[in-house]
Write a structure and sequence with these properties.
Layout (H helix, E strand, L loop, with lengths): L4 E5 L3 E6 L6 E8 L6 E5 L7 E3 L5 E3 L5 E4 L2 E3 L3 H9 L5 E5 L12 H10 L1 E7 L2 E3 L4 E4 L5 E5 L4 E7 L8 E6 L2 H8 L5 E3 H9 L12 E4 L2 E3 L9 H14 L5 E9 L3 H20 L15 H7 L11 E6 L3 E7 L19 H17 L7 E13 L8 E12 L2 E10 L2 E14 L1
Helix pairs in contact: 1-2, 1-5, 5-6
Length: 437
Amino acid sequence: MPADVQHTLAGSATLEGTSLHTGEKVTLTLKPAPEGHGFKFRRIDLPDQPFIAADVDKVQTVERATTLAEGSVKVHTVEHVLSALTGMGVDNALIEMNANEPPIGDGSSRPFVELIKKAGIVAQSAPRKTWEIREPIHLETGDGTLITIVPSKTFRVSVTNVGPDGRFTQYFSSEVTPEKYEKEIAPARTFVYYEDVKPLLEKGLIKGGSLESAVVIRGNEVMSKEALRFTNEFARHKALDVIGDLILSGKRILGHVIAVKPGHGPNTKMAATLKGEYSRMRSMVPPFSIPKGEAVLDIHDVLKILPHRYPFLLVDRVVDFEGDTKCTGVKNVTMNEPFFPGHFPGHPIMPGVLQLEAMAQVSSVLMLRKPENAGKIGYFMSADNVKWRRPVLPGDTLFIEAEVIKIRGSIGQTRCKCVVNGEVVSEGELKFALMDQ
């Protein structure tokens, strides 16, 4: 399958079984979904058949499984089916259920892999967006659990499982591809320590549990209808869970996930951290819709209007006009700006006075664009109510908004502000005179 485009299911496929924690009979159907859809669950047993997105923001509880909720509607134990879809290279799928929890099967994700293969996988047109981790992301809890994601050109998971009193300490590491996922990860079954069974039953959990659906560990012995499938099966199942929980971040990643004593709580916290870090990274260059036609002035148009040149031209583009009284310019602040080496060495910050100058230049574009003002120069007369609210750093995109509030003869007055990531970083009212060169 081409790895650079999104994939969905070629058709629908259905699986019936018993839920692990609720013990209910359930029918689960995997269906194709359009590009950009991601993974969504649908409770077809409820009125209006509500949807719940597989999003870390929807995580409600993480005790022995991951539960998603949208208002009063819940889906439990989502990690195995999400892990299978992710591991097999599916990006978009609808997961319909007539109960609140998928069937547990044998406690692994192999039944879901078989279901995916039955449905088939097809490529879509839209590109697959995969986030390459460039800097380590680390999460550590007080009980010895840690999850670190370090840069890698592939998606790899390394897991160390440590049971109570160090029992069944196991290690597993593998690159995650559909082929390796199916053979090396999907067959690994869930497990539980015997001393935890009674407390779980008292909490109303594992009602559908059995030796066919989980491996029970009693002391140093394994109780199961089937021998262990791998000598490190428990570490492999932890890797399975990590894959299913991390995709709740909404992003496929290229990175090496290193987890020691992982669980659904730390896994979903890391998913939330990933989502937050991705949003922070994207916010450095906020998306904007550039209007087409006369409202857009590229750098060549700006050079025709303003007399400024390097290193003092502080407008890269004008992206919008609202009539003759408002416009928005853009300045991409890069590390190559000539003022950063001296302001300040080792701690580069765009000087506030240059933000003020950028406001003046956008104001000049607004005024000089008029035919009667062509060829003139705008001279500063005053700057009032100027405020600087936060530093502007290399990598920021400065949106400079200017609005004419008064014109009298050759004297103009504008109200301006500079915005980064939707936050006002500086503002002021400027007065200038338009003069012949």
